Amino acid sequence: MVPGARLIVLGKQGSGKGTQCTRLSHRYVVPHISTGDMLRVEVKSRTPLGLQARRYLDAGDLIPDEIVLAMVAARLDRDDTRTRGFVLDGFPRTVAQADGFDELLKPAVIDLVLNLVIPTEMVLARLVSRRVCEDCGAIYSTSVPPKLNWTCDVCGGEVVQREDDTEEAIKNRLDLYETQTAPLVARYAALDKLVDVSGVGTPDEVNLRLTSVIDAYQHGGGFFPPVPPEERP
Ligand code: ADP
Questions:
Q1: In the predicted model, is pLDDT for residue 230 greater than 90?
Q2: Model's pTM, two decimal places?
Q3: Sorting pLDDT into bands at 50, 70 and 90, what band is 229?
Q4: Per annotation, catalytic residue among 6, 40, 93, 131
Q5: Domain enclosing residue 46, as ranges
Q6: I need a labelling partner for 88 at 20 to 30 A (CA). Which of 31, 34, 163, 177 fits?
């Protein structure tokens, strides 16, 4: 049986987090928890949370910490995360979220934080050409489009440019990354959880780097064993 894992992937917008987290979730059989995807679903479904979140998303601003923490807490409560773990994409994004998350997770702890490192010039080019499926969030680009007519290869949804992939919102998101999220790198490094991985190269190349790090950790016996059903909270 593939052991579970509790992984966080950090990296600025366009570093390839979404693409890599999807792959890691398949390989380690853990749910891919993307707070951005969760929020976009809320906006699309016009839920009370979505109506509240929309203006933040459109401007590229961060949703208040309490709201995101409540959303993640509800997701962590589900059986799949309790028994298998998770790969977290886009969360935590502030020190307050990281502190709140540690509390939510107790007595468990994170296994590894993988920091995808990439030069800013490269992310700008990637973000401008990025296209996403409106329904399942699968990621494409103008150079690697879906096979048929901007229809998602995975679910048949419409593949579009994200509304917050405008020049202004991208700049705001990258600035917020530097001020709010980059401090998490030092935080997790101090806890001896952080591994920097280059995000430059093809998705396959980056994936190989990530899985080599995780597999090495796993073979060192680092991952938590599966929780038997009778011991689940
Ligand atoms: P990106 O990393 O390109 O900004 P995401 O899909 O991760 O894309 O996030 C899109 C938007 O969703 C963010 O700009 C922000 O408004 C909101 N968001 C996602 N995750 C969080 C979070 N952890 N805290 C606050 N806001 C968030």
A1: no
A2: 0.90
A3: low
A4: 93
A5: 5-218
A6: 163
